[in-house]
Structures are given as C-alpha cells and as structure tokens.
Amino acid sequence: MAMLENVRRDIARVTRREETWVDKVGTVCFNLGLHAVLLYRLGRWLQLHHLGPLAVLSSYVSSVVTGAQISPRASIGAGLRVYHPHGVTIGAGAILGRDCTLTHGNMIGTFGASDDRPVIGDRLDAATGAKILGRITVGDKVTVGPNAVLIHSVPSDVTVLGNPARIVLRADERGGHDQPSAEAPSEVVSRLVSLLRRTVEVVTIPSQVDRSTGLLGEGIGLDSVEILKLVCAIEEEFDLTIDESQLTAARFKTVGSLAAFIHERSAG
Questions:
Q1: Would you say the C-alpha torsion 81, 83, 84, 87 has a positive or negative sign?
Q2: What ranges do the domains of the chain cover?
Q3: Positive or negative CA dihedral for 131, 132, 138, 140?
Q4: Top CATH class, 2-168
Q5: How far is residue 109 from each of residues 147, 160, 252, measured CA to CA in Å?
Q6: What pLDDT score was predicted for residue 175?
Q7: Is residue 91 a contact partner of residue 108, using CB atoms and an 8 Å limit?
Q8: CATH superfamily of 175-267
Q9: pTM of the complete model beyond 0.85
C-alpha cells in the first residue's frame, strides 16, 4: 500500500498542470523522468521484499531506458519529480524526503572513499548538475544551484551555490529582528546601486533605482548566481566579511534594506 501511495503522489506531481485526461495519460506514457521514478519504486519494493536480483534488474532497465541510476537501496519519499533524467544518480543508502525535485546530471552519493550518503529533508530542489555528497544532513526546502557541490550539512530554507557550495540566501528566521535599525546614508545607497550595475546583467537593472527598488522577485529579480556575485562584490567594495547566517531574504528585500545592513556591518 505504501508503494501505491508513493506512486500516486509521484504521478500527481508530474500531471497536476495538465488540463485534460488525454494530456495526463500522455505524460504518464511518455515522460522519461516519471518512468525513472516508477522503475525506482518497483526496484525499491522488490528490494524490501528480499528480491534483490530483480531489484538490480529493475535499476539496470531504468539506467538503459531513462539514463537515471537510482539505487533500490536508497530511501525516497513520495512525490519525487525528475526532469531530464539522464545522468541522475542516487546511491545506495541515500535518504530523501517528500516532494523532492531533481534534474539532469544530479548526483547524490559518496564523497571520496567513504560509503556514507546524505540524509535530505522534504522539498529539495536541485538544479542541473548539482551534487550532494558524503555524510551530511540537508534540511527541508533547500535549493541547490546549478553545478553546485554540497559537501557540508545545511539547515532548512536556504539556497546554496558554488563549489564547494555556500549559503547565498536563507529564509527569515527571526521576523522583525532582521529589520535594519536605521536608514543607510545616501552615499552607501549610491555605492550599492553602482555595484549592482557593475555586477548584475545590465538588462535586468531598471533605469531608475532607489531605496525602494526590490532585489528579489519584483524589481531587479536577482537569482541565486547573481546574489552570490553581489555578496562577493559587497565584501570587496565595503571591506566586509559577511557570515552565511546573515544572508536572510529580509535583508535582500530592497536596495534600502541591503544598504542599511551594509551600513550597520560597516559601523560595527
């Protein structure tokens, strides 16, 4: 029953945006990422029922047909979605939570000679080429950027990027405590705006930028790569060292909130 419930949720995640039954059936029949997931579910069921050789056969068929190698000895929660499965690898002993999303070239497995695999929470979102390796713990709702290599444990609600991966943004954990205590001087705002124009692609910068201009979503709309570039540029421009724990979404809400944070760190 658990396997059937997992399969229902896997299929539901892939087909929920399809409007007609014809589209839903077509997705089930021709989506290779879903086929990789379903073959893993079959292999996992066989493994748990002491039919190891058949489980290995199911994994082999998946690797040939879909390009994904997902060990039946990995434990993966319901709602797994795989985009473009070629090159996706999940090693034996890895643990993933519910509603995780994987893409082309992802690897979840060992680091070096160790046999230890990661333990990953719910709603992982791994971009193309991202790798999660070794005996680490990854929290819920973690986004791993393109080609990032994550080899250290990270908490929930963060975005990581780079090789080795570092946290470039985390969800707000303390509510109002992340709000700046004072408005930044105009000089700091001007330097930050100039830095934005030098660091971020010009086409994404509005012609008029002031304290109220948004940095995430509405406004400039920084992505995880641009956030990392901007943080590195801020550290160099303002001679600061910014701890990962300080990279909260509230501080990147607007140009003004980020400038106020920079001013506070410089004064401290």
A1: negative
A2: 2-168, 175-267
A3: positive
A4: mainly beta
A5: 15, 18, 33
A6: 45
A7: yes
A8: ACP-like (1.10.1200.10)
A9: no
Can you give the pLDDT at residue 66? 96
Q: Return the exposure string of 65-98: e unless at least 16 CB atoms fall within 10 Å of the residue's CB, then b.
A: ebbbbbbbbbbbbbbbbbbbbeebbbbbbbbbbb
Distances (CA, A) of 241 to 192, 253, 260: 16, 20, 16
Residues of the chain with pLDDT under 70: 1, 113, 172-181, 202-204, 217, 268
DSSP one-letter string for 41-109: HHHHHHHHTT-HHHHHHHHHHHHHHTS-EE-TTSEE-S--EESS-TT-EE-TT-EE-SS-EE-TT-EEE
| Structure tokens that stand for 37 in this block | 């997931």
